[in-house]
Amino acid sequence: MTVPDGRTGIDFLLLMEDYQGSYTEAFRAAPELQEASYEESAKRLFSRSIYYGDAYVNGLASRGFTADQVVPACRPLQFKWARAHGLWNPSDWIGRIPLDARPVLFSKQVTDQLTLSRILIEQIAGRRPKIVWLFSGIRVTAREVRAWRRHAEHVMLWWSFPLVDGSPCERFDRLLSSIPSLFRHFEVRGMGPPHLIHAFDRRICDRIPSLEARIPRVAFVGNLAPNYGDRIAFLDALSRHVPIDFYGHGEQYLPEDSPLRRAYRGPAWGDELYSVYGSHLIVVHKNIDVAEKSASAKRLFEATGMGACVVTEASDDLADLFVPGEEVITYSGVDDCVEKIGQLLTNPERAREIGRRGQQRTLTDHTYERRVDDLLSHVKALGLL
What we know:
The protein is an alpha/beta fold. It is 43% helix and 13% strand.
């Protein structure tokens, strides 16, 4: 692609969320990344399959499109890019001021946000993408979107979480989501988005084993938060009857006497997350409140992709993705879930067979290559490519 100023740009620039600080945590936990170049640091981080990893970039490349990605809120990685490109970062010298006074702390936070915004604009300007694709969870202002448009032909948004107040949805050329309740929200405003659901990166199976002799327990990998009341109540009740290993964040929101607190194993990202899915016999899923009863969670595809037997709440659209009772198991409430998990734990071969069938379905129908094909059909139909 040749842009008006004569420089060649890329097709897509993906702006990825630093979900629960996962990229920041991974960067700070890897001393070898401190001395590596920005390019090498980013490559290593994305190859670890943290959240989306480089799955969409790889999928787009497999279809002949040029794509790159950045994590706008990952301070250490973004500040490394700024230093490598000679971009003055006031946060560097503010950070050397003793942080004893509250005004200094506040000043650094504000300066960091302004600096990160400026870095992102420079990254977009340098890549001159045809489409800037913003993912869920990244706060953005209408002013920032206008700034991006000076260096990109189109801006696109994919959202799968509760909407942030003041989010400038109308500033985007295309809205995508995996959650039907958000479809309705956008449609009322005349911005009905195409459906783009989550997927699984089949390359993960090449480096993370799916064990035949699985741990005879249930795993839940996810997060708890004050606005996830239904999920908290459900998992707490379930943990009082079946053995659950809990990985993620938010254990402090559980009741003090919850067995799930005692089974908390800490956060799991990237390869560690897929190792959990590849080693546990059963993975349980409970939607967050905004998803209502839709089958829209990444967990469904990540866990089935690793061959776990997924036990998920029944939903109207699940049968479009998996065959209930054959590729996944569904429940209608806590008591039903307790009963079905108990049956699977006493018949592990049935659980393994369901896991194998679910994995085959995911590797056939729910890969990122398939999702990229869906994405490309949407954007081409709209004239964005």
